[in-house]
Amino acid sequence: MLGAIVCWVVATGVLAEARADDWGETEVDRDQSENAPAPGHFEFWAGGQAFLRAWSLYTGTTAAPFAGIQEDGVRLRLVGGYGSYTYSGPRAVGVFSQTMNFKGAAAFTDALVGYQKQLGPLTVKAFAGLSAASYQVTPDDPETAIRGPGLGGKAALGTWWNISDRAWSSVDVSWGSLYDSYAARARLGWRFLPALSLGLESGAAGNRESDIVRVGGFLRYEWAGGELSASGGLSSDRLLQGVDVHDTTRSSTPFATLAWLTRF
Prior knowledge:
Layout: H1 2-18, H2 20-23, E1 42-50, E2 54-63, E3 73-93, E4 96-119, E5 122-138, E6 148-162, E7 167-176, E8 181-191, E9 196-206, E10 210-223, E11 226-241, E12 246-249, E13 253-263
Antiparallel strand pairs: 1-2, 1-13, 2-3, 3-4, 4-5, 5-6, 6-7, 7-8, 8-9, 9-10, 10-11, 11-12, 11-13
């Protein structure tokens, strides 16, 4: 999966350079001057997030083969990532039961096709495709269904709304058929400087056996070719597992995320 990501990134970079003359100049967006260069056709991003009992790293790229990356049109997206997590629960040991600690590792790749549409101040991106993942748990946990490799479908929707010159909001949601995995995040931001925004965010992610909910704030720095954002706050996780469905909810703990994006 990592090899596929590397090949995709290299291929999109080579394609962008090879076809730069063919694409030529297109209509510039409202923040660019009339003599500015044509908008890029690719986005590349990377990031990470850390919770008390889980962390993950991810990277991905989106290609706009027929128009600029900030214009309406078809999108091709490839994403990959790796993460680790820990959990515990009561397990039968002979005729007795004891609490055991487990450590899991997961790797995933998404290959999606979508479309971006501008509706006045609202930008909408919709994607659908395939998602592959592999989970390993140490020691082996017979009560979890989330282990080993798997393949399923995935759908994602992202929106960006420029409420005013200063205020904006974004909502991103996704769902995958593999283990009923999902993710959602909502942000409400305020540009207190032309390039700097701060605001509130909330989100949730999980699957059929676990959920993580978070609430916090973020700081976002943007420039013509990309952005850098960081967020932090409190999170709470819940584990639903086993034939008897053990429900374990943990109190609020800190979380942090960091993400970088560039367009070319």
